[in-house]
Amino acid sequence: MTEQWKGYDLIGDIHGCAQTLERLLDKLGYSKRNGIYSHPDRQVIFLGDIVDRGPRIREALHIVHDMVDAGYAQIVMGNHEYNFLCYCTPGREGSGMPYLREHTARHLRILKETLDQFANYPEERQEFLDWMAKMPLFLEFDQFRVVHACWHQDLINKFEAQYPDHRITEDFLHRSAQQGTMEWTLMDRLLRGTHLRLPNGEVMISKDGFKRSFFRTKFWAESPYYYADVVFQPDPLPTHVARQVITEEDHEDLVHYGREEKLLFIGHYWRDGKPEPITDNIACLDYSAVKFGKLVAYRYDGEPVVRKDKFVWVDVRKEIFEDV
Fold this sequence. Notes:
By secondary structure, the chain is of the alpha/beta class. It has helices spanning 18-27, 57-69, 79-87, 105-117, 122-132, 153-162, 170-176, 182-192, 239-242, 248-253, 316-321; strands at residues 7-11, 31-33, 36-38, 42-46, 73-75, 138-140, 144-147, 195-197, 204-205, 211-212, 214-216, 263-266, 282-284, 286-287, 294-300, 311-315. The protein is globular and about 60 Å long. The two termini are 39 Å apart.
């Protein structure tokens, strides 16, 4: 806590749900003054992924940007901001990359709503891209931490030694598009999370029809033994894979965020059901708002553990969709 702010309200992935965001800010006691949402003694921290998929991406970006610009909010970069930035950034001469993110059919499908909604606002689009490039990758306070997908201490230490403001540079951005570099690995871990390759070269089909050879993993699992102990994603592992013992090599790739660490707030993972802590010190605030789930906030007031009663949310299907 600071002299200015008595508490923080952390808000998960918005994905263009501006109307839902306004409803949530209202629930949290924020009001619009001079066109900007604010609270007399609380500050919002957005967990990234403001863009893509939703119906009001421009509007959501304006709300968030104006709050951050006025000092009423902070934000960390999400993988969708990073992807948008790379998709729109041309590769350097001799790099062999027309753009830092390949213009494939799948990448276009994910970014389509964002690109379409900015089609008639090219100058505004560039202004938001410039702002996204300056978003910090993580925030650390005395009592808690914020990152979009995963807190990877070793990578964060390396990054912070060179970039103490937690923000990337143009050179960093270009290096991060080259698989195998430290920059690529850091962006992949912090913004997309940890993952393992499916054993024996297997492939699974996700709910969106995409073929996956990797699956997302928990970075807080204690003494995992089977692959089922570490899987963390909407799509379950095939049963025969889930029951396999984790190999020694895969064990070495796992990251562990211990219960003795500071409170950690993340988004990214498309959870469902009633919002609740993952562990005593980890809260995920992404509950699939853009898929008629919930837009979730956590009201932090200095408590030493994550508490169930501090989650606040708007149920999109019940409070937004059915009201229309």
